[in-house]
Amino acid sequence: MVKLKFGPATLVAAAFIGPGTVVTASLVGANYGYALLWALLFAIAATIVLQEMAARIGVVTQQGLGENLRLAVQQPLLRQLFILLVVAAVVVGNSAYQGGNLTGASLGARSLWGDLTWVTFFREDVRINPWAVILGGLAAIILWQGQYKRIEKILIALVVLMSVAFLITFALSKPDFRAILTGLFLPSVPAGALLTTMALVGTTVVPYALFLHAASARERWFSGENKASDESTTAALTEAKADIYTSIPLGGLVTLAIISTAASAYFGSNEEITGAADLAVSLQPVFGDLATYLTAFGLLAAGLSSAITAPLASAYALTGVLGWSTNMRGWRFRATWFCIIIIGVLVSSLGIQPFALIVFAQVANGILLPLITYFLLLVVNQKRMGKFANTARQNIVAGLVFMIALALGLRSIWLALT
């Protein structure tokens, strides 16, 4: 029996439940009610499969995905291609998305505590959003400590608080549990919902979370050890599985709560929703002030947690694939996440829409996701994994997930190009 436990997988939940997921889930509920919940159920199952392999690689090899990639891919040209893809999809991509993380967190903060005076920067028409600066600075302070276990505890607290906020809002919205069960277990795709269905899956199954999980699993259980015994590795993997089966489903439950709340407030009405901020404001006349404040607080926690995990994952990925030190207090590691936070603050503050960067990142992610999934399968079946390598059943399940990853990758490329 798997016990409930919070650990590195909570960072994954913090990563995929960001403002982008809140917006996507809100639009799913508002436009299609409970009909697409089966896609969320599948996304959580696929995430569990991929993240379990990533965590197992991190624990057994005591290396992140970046380091394993350098060892597994010996052909120089192919290795350079992988490195370029990782830099493009994870580092450049997260630089663009960090602006959205801080913007979402700022919206939540403004809903709770009001606007702050914008600060003029060099010219009258160039102003800095103080909430973005404050929240970006808070993320930097947390990461600068360079202590994995402390960062993990902070992110666990944020995920728990976010979960409580959205789940109480879910209860206040008086959900239709029969419709929820129907949506979960009787798959259907309403007219015009195909791309939205794939978007819901795509916001949960993301490449950078795999880098984050492998590296954080190593940090959590074997940081500083030279060689782990089979007994200690088995014990760590047992804890890692308990962590995965606690944190990832909790993340799915939060997404379900957001979909259900939006469905209760909007589905079947003439009102339109364009983002998470609309959801927070519109809940007040229907479900009262408490629902509005809880949704705003959930958005703040979701944005801040993603604003911490995105730079952290980028630093792990970049230092790993380039063969640099992955020490969290190393200057290259710190420089990577610091640059991403700065870019995010500027994007959020100045109202920049980095469309070119986002399109570029979507294409890179579309190529990287199936390749990283294949790479996971390659590494987890190598001899160095020993008795902890995949079983035949695990390979079959992972192979099916690979096909879905390929479809998601092609979708990302197609959307970006069109």
Give a verbal description of the structure.
This protein is mostly helical. It has one domain: Amino acid/polyamine transporter I (Up-down Bundle). The chain contains 16 helices and 2 strands. The protein has helices at 8-16, 19-32, 37-61, 65-72, 76-113, 130-144, 148-172, 177-185, 194-202, 207-222, 230-266, 276-287, 289-321, 331-350, 355-380, 392-417; strands at 119-121, 123-128. It has a two-stranded antiparallel ribbon with strand order 1-2. Strand 1 and strand 2 form a beta hairpin. Helix 1 packs across helix 7 (148-172) and helix 1 (8-16) packs antiparallel against helix 10.
CATH superfamily: Amino acid/polyamine transporter I
CATH-derived architecture = Up-down Bundle
pLDDT < 50 runs, ≥5 residues:
none
Distance between the termini: 47 Å
Helical content, roughly?
over 70%
Secondary-structure class: mainly alpha
Structural shape: globular
Biggest sheet: strand arrangement: 1-2
Please state the average pLDDT score: 84
What does the radius of gyration come to?
21 Å
Number of strands: 2
Number of separate domains: 1
- The CATH topology comes to Amino acid/polyamine transporter I
- Along the chain, the helix and strand elements come as HHHHHEEHHHHHHHHHHH
Proportion of residues in extended strands: under 5%
What is the C-level CATH assignment?
Mainly Alpha
Annotation field: number of helices? 16
Largest sheet geometry: 2 strands, antiparallel
Please summarize what this structure is.
By secondary structure, the protein is an all-alpha fold.
